[in-house]
Design goal:
Distance between the termini: 61 Å
Strand content: under 5%
Structural class: mainly alpha
Largest sheet: none
Shape: globular
Number of strands: 0
Radius of gyration: 16 Å
């Protein structure tokens, strides 16, 4: 059985696989819980290497299980929002076939 004390904090900061954190069986869909520990993540992320990629890396472990992931985050411009933006950009690139949507191809010079 899953330990219900794990949250998104454990997935982002401690690299706990999200598949071990997600709670299924909710009428609204599967949920990865959060609690007040997530507010501490900001202070921990600002001193980590490649901190802006932590959410993206965590989501890669469950990407094949979901067509849509909804991320509810605060509207503040900080490292947590950077994580959400980078994870979103990853999905947009993937849907565009690995190319950035809206970017024109570069002409090769001979």
């Amino acid at each position: 059985a899953k330990d219900s004390t794990y949250t998104i904090y454990d997935g982002i900061i401690d690299n706990k696989p999200l598949k071990d954190i997600v709670i299924t069986g909710n009428d609204m869909g599967d949920i990865i819980p959060a609690n007040s520990r997530l507010t501490r993540a900001y202070n921990e992320l600002v001193i980590m290497k490649a901190a802006e990629n932590k959410l993206k890396k965590a989501l890669l472990g469950i990407e094949k299980d979901y067509d849509v992931v909804i991320i509810d985050s605060s509207p503040s411009a900080n490292i947590m929002m950077d994580n959400v933006s980078i994870a979103t950009f990853l999905e947009i690139r993937r849907k565009a076939g690995g190319k950035t949507a809206g970017k024109r191809p570069t002409k090769s010079r001979r």
